[in-house]
Design goal:
250 residues; alpha/beta; Alpha/beta knot; 2 domains; 3-stranded mixed β-sheet; 8 helices; elongated; disordered N terminus
Length: 250
């Protein structure tokens, strides 16, 4: 086990199941563990089938497509968006939740999808979009007016797509902050999909275009894959801190 006096070059971030620690050591109980320590100590406790499955999934992940859900009303829809995001290999989901926001009660859950995601919460549209643009993302919002077809967006670049409130759509603050607006073409009388259906359609389009242009949707570097894998190993255990403490002494 590393001494607590050891000075790491990066600030220690404590492990949380809803947050992926993307670089540097991972803290558990104030104790720093390297990615290699976590993989080497927890890996042997997992079955070979489990390790292979985790590695295969991580190899298809990306941080470069981010769904943004603004002021959601129905918790069930958040769950559906998270499940679809995880299924297509998108690691991050951003939620814009104003302080005055109130969720509608729902019995549906993410069915464990959030276990594999990096969920970020923001209090305003401006805060969320600034964070994304500072990281090099282009940001587009779903909107019916003055919008371009989804086919015109280049999803091979780091891209975030904003899904609006189920009742009111995307806010004016968000529309003023994003780079553009887009629509999913529809052939019938109905003007819009249910939010969870729209998300799945958009995610599939982004996944397919990225796969065609880049060869595959996933684009994590070897180091990023190891970092995500270490996070996932920790999430496989009920009490990873105790396990690491015990195996460090062996």
């Amino acid at each position: 086990m590393m001494s607590k006096e050891f000075e790491w070059p990066e600030p220690l971030i404590e492990f949380k199941r809803s947050q992926l620690i993307r670089s540097g050591p991972i803290g558990l109980g104030g104790q720093p563990y390297t990615v290699e320590q976590i993989i080497n100590q927890i890996g042997p406790l997992l079955t070979e089938e489990r390790r292979l499955r985790l590695s295969e999934v991580v190899a298809r992940r990306t941080f470069n497509f981010v769904p943004v859900f603004e002021n959601p009303y129905d918790l069930g829809n958040i769950s559906a968006v998270m499940r679809s995001s995880e299924a297509f290999g998108f690691l991050e989901v951003d939620l814009v939740i104003p302080e005055q926001s109130r969720f509608k009660a729902a019995n549906r859950v993410a069915r464990g999808a959030d276990k594999w995601l990096d969920v970020k919460a923001f209090r305003s549209a401006g805060e969320c979009v600034k964070n994304l643009k500072d990281r090099g993302f282009q940001v587009y919002a779903t909107h019916l007016e003055a919008a371009r077809p989804i086919e015109e967006i280049d999803f091979s670049k780091p891209t975030a797509v904003v899904l609006g409130n189920e009742k009111d759509g995307v806010s004016q603050e968000m529309l003023s902050a994003v780079d553009g607006r887009f629509i999913v073409p529809m052939q019938g009388f109905t003007q819009s999909f249910n939010i969870s259906v729209a998300a799945a359609v958009i995610f599939y389009h982004a996944w397919r275009q990225r796969s065609e242009v880049l060869g595959q949707c996933g684009d994590l570097s070897e180091e990023q894959q190891k970092q995500v894998l270490a996070n996932y190993y920790l999430r496989c255990l009920d009490n990873p801190e105790a396990v690491l403490q015990r195996t460090s002494k062996d």
